[in-house]
TrEMBL record:
Superkingdom per UniProt: Bacteria
Transmembrane found in the keyword field: yes
Name by which UniProt lists this protein: Protein-export membrane protein SecG
Known role: Involved in protein export. Participates in an early event of protein translocation.
Pfam name, any one: SecG
Gene Ontology biological process terms in this record: protein secretion
Keyword flag Lyase: no
Cell compartment(s), UniProt: Cell membrane; Membrane
Length: 80
């Protein structure tokens, strides 16, 4: 159980970091902190719809993996 817990904790750290980066890569919807830090400048250039959809899919995939790891760690904690 200790090896599984360590593997899940490492996976949690990695998915948390990647999820944070992926969320920051999303195009701002306007008027918020993204515009304050330069998001408004790049909004004019725009990104293709396909790239944004792929970024959404990857972000959702990482979020699902992150949630599963959280649940598994909770179950291991409860059982162990």
């Amino acid at each position: 159980m200790d090896v599984l817990r360590i593997i899940l904790q490492v996976l949690l750290v990695l998915t948390s970091g990647f999820l944070t980066l992926l969320i920051l890569l999303h195009k701002g919807k306007g008027g918020g902190l993204s515009d304050m830090f330069g998001g408004g400048i790049t909004a004019g250039a725009g990104s293709s719809g396909v790239a944004e959809r792929n970024l959404n899919r990857i972000t959702v995939s990482f979020a699902v993996v992150w949630a599963i790891v959280i649940v598994l760690l909770g179950l291991i904690q409860k059982l162990g």
